[in-house]
């Protein structure tokens, strides 16, 4: 190799080594941060909550319908059954009873004495998720209805054969209306002018004028009436009869029975009942039948049935009518039903012996 070429080659080596060395990071160099991770999207708050009373465990399950899980559990007291919410969903009212559990045909003389100190209406703050207080609800309250302004509650007093009228702010009972043997279901007509009360023991529904708190009609229905639901316009009432195996349709202007629907199927015992927001469908739990039946309100015929769980009782619809929830007592869970397809799309574990269900807008929504 010529001398000039050897010189150039010798000069290039240090340059190459210098470039190679400069490509290695210095021990003092700080790593260059990569792009920041995108923040997690905020959790979508549910538009409403599902509130379930658990008769056996004495508490309230607060269910998130989006997560389909219990968000929290609120202790209430003995035997919570009927439950209703005020208009904005900020408060719930649950019927509590110290009377022992007694099914049909049970010899009551062999039951333990009732704990009357446990009777009352539990008022729940849904924002703070806590029981605020328990007020007087008469003897052995089972179900109740609340006026649209949240001022008064009408309460079925099962062992007293009466309905108490309670001022919720003061906690005072301002009237007691005789209704019949073993009153249970209580529902306010949409216009708030009347409240209907079923009486299991004598196959009767009593209509009470909410202005005067006086009985304006008594309607005879098949044996052991349970639940009541009104059409959205208040023109019709639907009453379930467990032992009669029927749903009775009543004209609310005349208080006359206009139709009696008798669903077919094994062990069909109509219990809880709701009407869709558009008034086109009536949904009924069948107790020991384990199903929900759908009735076409236009012609009073059964148009569908879905198996939901063990002895479904309480029933409620989402505000848009797309989701239906049932309380399945023996299996300690709540079924979620898609009303368009009439299929069960989920089950949610609740407390012990879930009984009643209320749906209310999420506070602040």
Q: Helix count, per DSSP?
A: 1
Shape: globular
**Series of H and E elements:** HEEEEEEEEEEEEEEEEEEEEEEEEEEEE
Number of strands: 28
Quote the beta fraction: over 45%
Round the Cα radius of gyration to an integer and report it: 31 Å
Major sheet details: 4 strands, antiparallel
Helix fraction by DSSP (H/I, runs of at least 4): under 10%
**Classification by helices and strands:** mainly beta
Note the topology.
Blueprint: H1 3-22, E1 48-54, E2 59-64, E3 69-75, E4 83-85, E5 91-96, E6 120-125, E7 130-135, E8 141-146, E9 152-157, E10 162-167, E11 172-178, E12 183-188, E13 194-199, E14 204-209, E15 214-220, E16 225-230, E17 236-241, E18 246-251, E19 256-261, E20 273-275, E21 281-285, E22 291-296, E23 301-307, E24 312-317, E25 323-328, E26 333-338, E27 343-349, E28 354-361
Antiparallel strand pairs: 1-2, 1-28, 2-3, 4-5, 5-6, 6-7, 8-9, 9-10, 10-11, 12-13, 13-14, 14-15, 16-17, 17-18, 18-19, 20-21, 21-22, 22-23, 24-25, 25-26, 26-27
